[in-house]
């Protein structure tokens, strides 16, 4: 089977990392991958051993000429199907291009933010199947009018063994400028409003007063960096909270954390939560979107209502004072990831959708 994947993201995290897992797994199964992505992006280099990479100009939702570029690529490469992995224009422009070329097309939806019903009715008409990465996203799509016959759910995956490897905690903490006896909380998310960093900052003053050993690191980048730094300074939290930027050493950092907090208002599933659970780190997160599929109450973490600062503070405080429960939740996370979020399961899930679609269209597949 020959699959053309289209991914518009420029950074190798979140959805782009899932694309890398998928093309690697498909190649191992003997399938042929082509990848259209922005020129010079990190995914292009990482995926080169597993896919024929085509770096293209990709300028977002208003990039109408993307239709022509993708159409020409489809006509020249003659894939069995096209798999669109992101929005950023790829969902619509890629759908139009595949339709014009007469090739079956699948779109993976990774976010749970709502879309107008009229847009759902128009956009998803372009796609033969829509894959949601969580039941939560699937429910949003159905509520907005997506025909259930088009929807399939294939959860995102994590290389859980990569994050479960033992590390030198003292060395990692020194790298982060954190003392060995600190209680280290990590937030792994883009610095954007819907990730909810502000709720943790609002919860922290009382927690720090009771537990001065708390240290918090915000791992990620985004447009809210200056605003968050201002909030940190105004709250007098500069000795306890730091913006640590985007990190490519998370597999080493995560096992050195005592707790991961994810106070998001919206979340498709949360790849960082899968990574944290794989590393055996307990989690406190919002009960929003697909998060309850990655964080099971009492199994690998605690869930709180989105935006509820008091509940967030109470959940963190509960785990701060209970190391045995933290250890139990960490072990539960590792078991959950191995059982339900393996890369093999994600690859097989996508392959099942490919085969079903090709069978339905009468095309031959292997």
UniProtKB/TrEMBL annotation:
Alphabetical keyword list: Transferase
Domain Glycosyltransferase subfamily 4-like N-terminal: start-end pairs: 14-162
Glycosyl transferase family domain segment(s): 169-334
InterPro entries membership: Glyco_trans_1, Glyco_trans_4-like_N
GO molecular-function terms, A-Z: glycosyltransferase activity
Keyword Transferase: yes
One BP term from GO: carbohydrate derivative metabolic process
Keyword Iron: no
Matching Pfam families: Glyco_transf_4, Glycos_transf_1
Alphabetized PANTHER family for the sequence: BLL3647 PROTEIN, GLYCOSYLTRANSFERASE
Descriptive protein name: Glycosyl transferase group 1
Species in which this protein is naturally found: Allochromatium vinosum (strain ATCC 17899 / DSM 180 / NBRC 103801 / NCIMB 10441 / D) (Chromatium vinosum)
């Amino acid at each position: 089977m020959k699959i053309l994947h289209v991914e518009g993201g420029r950074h190798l995290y979140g959805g782009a990392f899932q694309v890398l897992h998928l093309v690697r797994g498909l190649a191992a199964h003997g399938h042929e991958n082509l990848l259209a992505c922005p020129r010079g992006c990190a995914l292009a280099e990482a995926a080169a051993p597993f896919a024929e990479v085509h770096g293209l100009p990709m300028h977002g939702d208003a990039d109408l000429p993307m239709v022509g570029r993708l159409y020409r690529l489809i006509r020249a490469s003659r894939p069995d199907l096209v798999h669109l992995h992101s929005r950023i224009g790829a969902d619509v422009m890629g759908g139009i291009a595949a339709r014009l070329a007469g090739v079956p097309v699948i779109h993976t939806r990774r976010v749970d933010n709502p879309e107008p019903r009229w847009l759902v009715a128009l956009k998803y008409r372009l796609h033969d199947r829509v894959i949601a990465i969580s039941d939560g996203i699937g429910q949003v799509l159905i509520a907005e009018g997506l025909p259930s016959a088009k929807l399939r759910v294939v959860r995102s995956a994590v290389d859980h063994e990569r994050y479960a490897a033992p590390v030198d905690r003292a060395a990692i903490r020194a790298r982060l400028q954190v003392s060995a006896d600190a209680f280290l909380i990590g937030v792994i998310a883009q610095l954007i409003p819907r990730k909810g960093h502000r709720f943790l900052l609002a919860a922290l003053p009382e927690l720090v007063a009771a537990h001065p050993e708390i240290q918090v690191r915000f791992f990620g980048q985004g447009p809210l960096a200056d605003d968050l730094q201002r909030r940190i300074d105004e709250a007098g939290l500069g000795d306890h909270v730091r913006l640590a930027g985007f990190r490519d050493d998370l597999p080493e950092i995560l096992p050195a954390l005592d707790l991961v907090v994810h106070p998001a208002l919206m979340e498709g599933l949360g790849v960082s939560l899968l990574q944290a659970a794989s590393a055996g780190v307990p989690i406190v997160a919002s009960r929003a979107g697909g998060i309850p599929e990655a964080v099971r109450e009492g199994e690998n973490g605690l869930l709180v209502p989105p935006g509820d600062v008091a509940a967030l503070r109470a959940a963190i405080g509960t785990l701060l004072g209970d190391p045995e429960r933290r250890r139990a939740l960490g072990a539960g996370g590792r078991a959950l990831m191995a059982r339900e979020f393996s890369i093999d399961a994600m690859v097989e899930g996508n392959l099942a959708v490919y085969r079903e679609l090709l069978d339905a269209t009468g095309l031959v597949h292997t």
